[in-house]
């Protein structure tokens, strides 16, 4: 039977999620993003779910929990509880999504991808995997412009900004025209996954993917495609995590952390993890911020794959060292100002016994300096450069959260930047640019 697709305005309206696990967390997060007032009912609740802006009732579901709700999600691992929730919703005329049984559900949650003001929601006859695969293919086609979306004249005044690709049937209809590539991709992917479930899993693979400087749109097309095909994603703190919400729900996401001085996993543990998963036949994506081979330890992970005989590929990323200054209106080279630049890992105080950076040579050179991980030791680094000959009047920019909506840019001088950054409360992640090119920011920002 054909379902009726509909976009709901849940802002300020109550929604109830019954369940406290990973599925419930995804549903609650999506409801919060839509502005709903979310209540969660479950005997046990994941800490990540409890940390969201939801009202938690940590107890079993009981009749009456849906009172005042506009929408309910039954997302427990107990079919009897889910059935009871759905029955209460039916009696109360509340739409209810059952996560465990689409055929018994009064409402379905589509697979969604958003690009600008366009939302594409995909359902596929109650088959969530097929929906997710089609959504991934459509998302990729939108991202790389093989499925272009040019707003028609007057589109902003129309409700046509919401697109819904709904009820994709197995027999195929005219509604699927133009999506043959997406369907083929989904079918081929399903065959690949199915082949691995048979006797004797073949060798998997590892992709070291550079996610770019922060904006999810700056990942490469190949990187995005490999993400859509992954079985396991091992992600760093600075990787574009907004892309993870678009993955299949059964994709395992491992948070490797890698914040300064606080690692969820050591590098050796990460190496062992990606190798073991690939040897088990899984497709592993190691998702990093920036480029894997620019202070990303991608070389170490590639060598671990070589030693274990695991197939791997490196997908270069847009490095933060160049992209973040560019977003702030600062080219790292400019004719007549400088024809060279150096990218430096500045995570150690210059006086630290393990520090190997030749600050004296960098201070005497004419080029632009781009410092990564330098905020913690900015005062010592600036003093070291001045001591070795770089003028204290040299322009400096400190760019935090570059390429993201939270980007902040501080401009100062080498002699004053540490005090100015402390006063502004600048925190990592940040890129520091030292050199005459910083003066171009005012001109380029005003253009």
Give the termini distance in whole angstroms: 56 Å
User: What top-tier CATH class of the largest domain fits best?
Assistant: Alpha Beta
Shape: elongated
State the helicity in percent bands. 25-40%
Number of helical elements: 13
How many beta-strand runs? 18
Enumerate the strands of the largest sheet in spatial order, edge to edge or round the barrel.
Answer: 3-2-1-4-5
Mean pLDDT value? 85
What distinguishing features does this structure have?
447 residues; alpha/beta; Rossmann fold; Cobalt-precorrin-4 Transmethylase, domain 1; 4 domains; five-stranded parallel beta sheet; 18 strands
Short description:
With about 450 residues, the chain is of the alpha/beta class. It has helices spanning about 20-35, 45-50, 80-90, 130-145, 180-195, 220-230, 265-280, 300-310, 320-325, 360-365, 380-385, 415-425, 440-445, and strands at about 15-20, 35-40, 55, 70-75, 95-100, 110-115, 120, 160-165, 205-210, 230-235, 250-255, 285-290, 310-315, 340-345, 370, 395-400, 410-415, 430-435. The protein contains 13 helices and 18 strands.
């Amino acid at each position: 039977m054909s379902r009726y697709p509909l976009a709901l305005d849940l802002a300020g309206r109550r929604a109830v999620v019954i369940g406290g696990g990973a599925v419930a967390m995804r549903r609650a997060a999506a409801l919060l993003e839509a502005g709903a007032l979310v209540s969660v009912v479950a005997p046990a609740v994941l800490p990540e779910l409890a940390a969201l802006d939801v009202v938690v009732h940590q107890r079993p579901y009981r009749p009456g929990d849906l009172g005042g709700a506009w929408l309910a999600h039954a997302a427990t691992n107990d079919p009897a509880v889910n059935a009871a929730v759905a029955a209460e919703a039916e009696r109360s005329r509340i739409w209810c999504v059952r996560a465990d049984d689409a055929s018994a559900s009064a409402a379905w949650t589509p697979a969604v991808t958003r690009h600008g003001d366009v939302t594409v929601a995909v359902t596929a006859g109650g088959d969530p995997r097929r929906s997710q695969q089609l959504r991934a293919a459509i998302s990729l086609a939108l991202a790389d412009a093989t499925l272009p979306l040019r707003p028609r004249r007057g589109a902003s005044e129309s409700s046509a900004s919401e697109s819904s690709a709904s009820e994709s049937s197995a027999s195929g209809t005219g509604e699927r025209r133009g999506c043959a590539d997406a369907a083929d991709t989904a079918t081929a992917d399903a065959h690949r996954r199915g082949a691995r479930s048979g006797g004797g899993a073949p060798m998997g693979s590892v992709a070291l993917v550079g996610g770019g400087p922060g904006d999810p749109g700056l990942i490469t097309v190949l990187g995005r495609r490999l993400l859509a095909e992954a079985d396991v994603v091992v992600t760093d703190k600075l990787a574009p995590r907004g892309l993870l919400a678009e993955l299949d729900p059964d994709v395992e996401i491992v948070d490797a952390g890698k914040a300064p001085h606080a690692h969820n996993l050591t590098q050796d543990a990460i190496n062992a993890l990606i190798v073991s998963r690939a040897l088990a036949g899984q497709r592993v994506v190691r998702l990093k911020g920036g480029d894997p081979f620019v202070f990303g330890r991608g070389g170490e992970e590639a060598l671990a794959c070589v030693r274990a005989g695991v197939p791997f590929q490196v997908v270069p990323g847009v490095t933060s060292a160049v992209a973040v200054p560019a977003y702030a209106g600062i080219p790292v080279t400019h004719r007549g100002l400088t024809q060279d630049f150096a990218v430096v890992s500045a995570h150690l105080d210059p006086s630290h016994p393990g520090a190997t950076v030749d600050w004296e040579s960098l201070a005497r050179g004419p080029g632009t300096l781009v410092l990564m991980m330098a905020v913690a030791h900015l005062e010592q680094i600036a003093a070291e450069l001045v001591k070795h000959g770089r003028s204290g009047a040299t322009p400096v920019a400190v760019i935090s959260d570059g390429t993201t909506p939270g980007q902040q840019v501080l401009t100062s001088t080498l002699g004053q930047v540490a005090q100015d950054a402390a006063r502004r409360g600048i925190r990592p992640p940040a890129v520091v640019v030292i050199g005459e090119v910083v003066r171009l920011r005012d001109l380029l920002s005003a253009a």
